[in-house]
Amino acid sequence: MAEKKEEGIVETIKTVFWALLIAGIFRTLFFQPFWIPSSSMKETLLIGDFLFVNKMAYGYSRYSCPFSACPISGRILGSDPERGDVVVFRHPTNGTDYVKRLIGLPGDKIQLKAGILFINGAEAVQVAAGTFDELMEPQGRMGGFPRCSNGPVGQGATCEKERFLETFPDGGTHAILNISASGGLDNTNVFTVPEGHYFFMGDNRDNSTDSRVSQRNGGVGMVSEEYLLGRADRIMFSSAGKRLLYFWTWRSDRFFKAIE
């Protein structure tokens, strides 16, 4: 009886070991977990969303490659990133992982005028689509408060942001949020995206430090392809609370939601 019990324990240990090993290999080669810590991609991604980054989408770069023979620059395998993809990448100077929407491809000219995006001189048309409403309350682990277009509002009140559907000149539509059309990043010079680099912006346009801000000034700047970690395709889990165990703050309507 004791021998059977010991055999059962050994088999359980083996099962757990192989399960962890397979999970580790799966994570290393194909997917990387990522929690959304900030509000820069609202409403597409909310603080507390949990997703897996598809590391195979663009192939392996020097920062995502699990093999010893990693490229010094560029990528191996995979396909080219496409405009409109939601991408997780390594910040070129501070090493932090960011998630933004891909706006500009190599060679593109990007500019904003009064909050309107222009790609190679063509307007990305915005159509009003109501408001994005949320409570004025601390959000996520950091406990930050949202910014509002109807602000200032008191804690517990409804915080609104203007919502638009933006369509790229070459197709592809997604939702963006706006607080003001006269913010510091709503009017820019023309950015020319260098070869092998990409231009990113957050969907929450007035609350995103992205490629509109140079790396020297604390922004993302132009991101080289070697810093791309992968594409965000689907939200797996979402919680609005400061702790994962606060089940009453789980957003079940966002579980397994596709990212558009």
Q: How would you summarize the topology of this molecule?
A:
Elements: H1 2-29, E1 31-35, E2 49-54, E3 86-90, E4 97-104, E5 109-113, E6 116-119, E7 122-123, E8 125-135, E9 158-167, E10 173-178, E11 191-192, E12 197-201, E13 223-224, E14 228-238, E15 257-258
Antiparallel strand pairs: 1-2, 2-14, 3-4, 3-14, 4-12, 5-6, 5-11, 6-7, 8-9, 9-10, 12-13, 14-15
Give a short overview.
The chain has 260 residues and is mainly beta. 11% of the residues lie in helices and 32% in strands. Mean pLDDT is 85; it is low at 15-28.
Structural description of this entry:
By secondary structure, the chain is mainly beta. It has a single domain, classed as Umud Fragment, subunit A (Ribbon). It is built from one helix and 15 strands, in the order αβββββββββββββββ. The strands form three sheets. Strands 1, 2, 3, 4, 12, 13, 14 and 15 form an eight-stranded antiparallel sheet that branches. A four-stranded antiparallel sheet has the order 7-6-5-11, with no helix packed on it. The chain has a three-stranded antiparallel sheet with strand order 8-9-10, with no helix packed on it. A hairpin with a 2-residue loop joins strand 5 and strand 6. The chain is globular, with a radius of gyration of 21 Å. It starts with a helix and ends with a strand.
